[in-house]
From TrEMBL:
<feature type="transmembrane region" description="Helical">
    <location>
        <begin position="107"/>
        <end position="128"/>
    </location>
</feature>
<feature type="transmembrane region" description="Helical">
    <location>
        <begin position="44"/>
        <end position="68"/>
    </location>
</feature>
<feature type="transmembrane region" description="Helical">
    <location>
        <begin position="14"/>
        <end position="32"/>
    </location>
</feature>
<protein>
    <submittedName>
        <fullName>Uncharacterized protein</fullName>
    </submittedName>
</protein>
<feature type="transmembrane region" description="Helical">
    <location>
        <begin position="74"/>
        <end position="95"/>
    </location>
</feature>
<dbReference type="InterPro" id="IPR046166">
    <property type="entry name" value="DUF6168"/>
</dbReference>
<keyword id="KW-1133">Transmembrane helix</keyword>
<keyword id="KW-0812">Transmembrane</keyword>
<dbReference type="Pfam" id="PF19665">
    <property type="entry name" value="DUF6168"/>
</dbReference>
<keyword id="KW-0472">Membrane</keyword>
Length: 131
């Protein structure tokens, strides 16, 4: 695979990821406003973390797949655990607070994680199928 194709693929996928970030975040905010729901934390920070983490994970796996294609799938599994660990460290006050979350807050923590995980899996599976 030549480097220009690799750059185009990475840029296209990062653009799709950024577009999903903007669309999903704004849709989520809109739905919360429509229901007059106020969260006790910043939804923007949650979405931003997942966007940045997914972009870094995708870029690293894409880079690793060019060097050691047979290990890219295993590396991706490892990055999932690292990403969850970093999330817990960065948002530990939120994760371990004594305050009981309402359902909208619980969903606001889980929905971005699954949205970005789905996009990651889609990109990584396409990558692994081409290697």
């Amino acid at each position: 695979m030549n480097s220009s194709y690799l750059v185009k693929t990475v840029m296209r996928n990062l653009f799709i990821l950024a577009l999903a970030y903007v669309l999903f975040f704004n849709l989520h905010e809109y739905l919360l406003e429509q229901r007059n729901t106020v969260l006790s934390f910043s939804l923007f920070k949650i979405y931003t973390f997942h966007f940045v983490a997914s972009a870094v994970v995708y870029f690293l796996i894409e880079l690793l797949a060019t060097i050691v294609p047979s290990q890219a799938g295993f590396a991706y599994l490892g990055t999932i655990f690292i990403k969850v660990g970093i999330f817990v460290l960065l948002f530990q006050d939120l994760m371990f607070s004594e305050v009981e979350f309402i359902m909208a807050e619980k969903l606001a923590l889980v929905i971005p994680m699954f949205l970005f995980l789905f996009i990651e899996v889609f990109f990584i599976s396409r990558l692994l199928n081409t290697k």
